Amino acid sequence: MKILALMLVDRQPTSFQLSQTFWRQRYRVDPSTWLREFQQQGVLFTAVAPEISLQNLTVVSLRQLLRRYQLKISGRKAQLIARLQQTIPQTTLEHQFPQTFYLLTNSGKHLVQQNQFVWWVHQHYVSGIIDFAAAQQAHLPLDLNEYDTLTWLLVAAQANLRNNWPQQYFLNHLRFQTAWQNHLFGTALNALLDCIRLKLAGLAQGQPITGTSLKWPTTSYKIEPFYYVMLQELMTTYHLSTTDITSAFTQRCHAVVLPRQLFSDTEMVRLLEWTLTQQTDLIKQFYRQKQLTYPVDRAIG
Predict the structure, then answer these.
(1) Could you give the CA distance from residue 51 to residue 94 in angstroms, rounded to a whole number?
(2) What angle do CA 83, 102, 98 make, to 5 degrees?
(3) In principle, which of 72, 142, 152, 179 could form an S-S bond with 188, CB 3.0–4.6 Å?
(4) HEC assignment per residue over the chain
(5) Low-confidence ranges of the chain (pLDDT < 50)
């Protein structure tokens, strides 16, 4: 978590505080003393940084400053900033832009660079999935790369979740995102299909299912547009057919046994095929028929 704090504070004005709600509500830590500790440990320092101040100015303000020094005012923002830095002495810039910023030392930059996965975990955090306390005590090998570290975290999380199917659903989303970002598209496809299966099984939401909740198109128990877009991208990139996708889905059905299913494996394959071929009328009719088999007030999950 302290690595995350370093990532957040770098290049921020010294008025910046680690007061975001997620520190206490999500991670259950108190970072109030960390900024002082970072400076004592030599991973963070404060300095006047006119280059950051210039970057924070609008293009209009930069051109006004250029006119003051009788400099050319045309060009993109980066060119305007470079022109000012090349022309105006550093001491003058520091006098005109005296605001101090937090900056990482070389040691701080090295720590951040070696732990880029921390930002990924923070961005995709779902409460209760990754046990950060256990991860801190695990003493992982130092030579693990980002993907191997994330894989370790997700495997450990899956062992802890067991039969918590809503959390398993989120875990599969994390597996997909990890694999996708690391260009492991076979793994990404399997994780995506697992997400679809848990959705259609009625296990992702963790709430009782009623006839009303099966109403198309507002139902949550469907193949979301996001899945369709990602599957289409995989199919286009790797020249996969609809049959390739449905065959892979059938293999995933055989690989993981679910405690109960809203739709049978056969029905899921049918919905997946109709989604990939954009047969919306057939999907609507299917949900309409499925909805009629369950009274509105009857919970089935």
Answers:
(1) 9
(2) 50
(3) 179
(4) CHHHHHHHHCCCECCCCCCCHHHHHCCCCCCCCHHHHHHHHCCEEEEECHHHHHHHCCHHHHHHHHHHCCCCCCCCHHHHHHHHHHHCCHHHHHHHCCCEEEEECHHHHHHHHHCCHHHHHHHCCCCCCCCHHHHHHCCCCCCCCHHHHHHHHHHHHHHHHCCCHHHHHHHHHHHHHHHHHCCCHHHHHHHHHHHHHHHHHCCCCCCCCCCHHHCCCCCCCCCCHHHHHHHHHHHHHHCCCHHHHHHHHHHHHHHCCCCCCCCCHHHHHHHHHHHHCCCHHHHHHHHHHHHHCCCCCCCCC
(5) 298-301
pTM of the model: 0.59
For residue 103, the Cα-to-chain-centroid distance in whole angstroms is: 25
Report whether 77 contacts 51 (CB < 8 A): no
Contact 211, 294 (CB under 8 A): yes
Q: State how far the Cα of 265 lies from the Cα of 290, in Å rounded to an integer.
A: 15
Span 226-268, pLDDT tens digits: 899 999 999 998 999 999 999 999 999 999 889 999 999 999 9
Q: Are 7 and 119 a contacting pair, CB within 8 Å?
A: yes
